[in-house]
Design goal:
Length: 461
Amino acid sequence: MADYDIAGVALPCNPEAERSVIGALLIDSELVGDVINILHPEHFYADVNRGVFQAVFTLFTRGEKADIVTVIDECVMQGVFENADAAKTYLVDVMKGVPSTRSVTKYAAIVIEKYLLRSLILASRDIIDVAASGTEDAEDAVDFAEQKIFGIREGTENQTLVPISNIAYDQLKAFCKLVEESGKNGGKGIMSGLATGFSDLDRKIYGLNRSDLIILAARPGMGKTSFALNIAVNVANKYKNKSVCIFSLEMSKEQLVSRMMASEGRVSTEVLRTGKLSRNGMEDFEKIKSVTEALQTLDIYIDDTPGTNVSAIKAKLRRVKNLGLVIIDYLQLMNSVANYHGNRVAEISEITRMLKIMAKELNVPVIVLSQLSRDTEKRPDKRPLMSDLRDSGTIEQDADVVLFLYRNSYYDKADPMQNVCECILAKNRHGETGTTQLGWLGEYTKFTEIAYTPNGGAPQS
């Protein structure tokens, strides 16, 4: 971070805390592992301290011990000091000034605190510059300001050129965690993303991964809203520390919850719409009461504001704690801030691009439902293709995963597989494409996993 002030405001820093962190690590290299997990080179204000810590960081990622000798050598190699004598003089002096190595995490916390305050000052300058320039749309300027502040809170505001050593180390830590969890799971592989609740699909996409834009498309009546709601409930049930946010631009929040109640309680949607209980009336009533209590415990939020845009959605999501999954129903009902003068393809392209950026910024999977064009109805084989994405523009390009739902029984009432739905994985940045078979219980708007008999008989839910 640059060494300058803004309108006479000096950038906060604590040189003693920075030096104490470095000195403590040089005195006791066993402390490096604890500090590396919370502190990064960019947190340091002074160039020399940042450089020394980067040297320690590099040695640690290479699996080498970070002591006075190795750090001096690495600092000289990285150009932090002109020669070994200069490095030794500075580092020995730093080590002598450490009050207590046992307080290294407290020193690190002070360094981070000053870094956050500097970041806030610099972000404020950028926000003022954008707002005062007059070249930005007001809503875009507000979005920029929110993004800056949110980035500071999430520790992502300094997304600039990052040494591959830092990235590789973070990836190694993530891999080691997966290996550890796999060992606890009997050696079975662990998904990197959130489980959808549909194991065959999860195996193909490795779950719902952070920053992924997932397009779920189908013709009307295929059950795309139901499938998205089933995933939402599955995720909320499995990950109690994750919030699931649903933005419904077509159906009301009451309609969505009614569908969830029918699906999770295995109660006919007709019962919930009309109140007319079946022969097993009391049983249905108890099911509805039970599923209502269960749904109330889930961390699911619903917004049914019509005609919303990406900026408005993003602003709401930034205020959600422990955000885990976002679902938007559906793409073609969204609006863009800019005026595209009736060019809907260009407008949809801009919306999908902004949705992908939002997924990256918030670092969560975003499932966006989409319509398909009527071209599917004109073909003998009505299974969807990428070209069927309505107002497609750059949907295929921006999406990480594209899923199509197709039920042949919708067109052929004599099809013996009346309760089977194909989930077609048309695009998958994480692996192979293919088709997953799902069970469909239309009476409850419920998708299930199914297993086929060896002779190819009827599916079993």
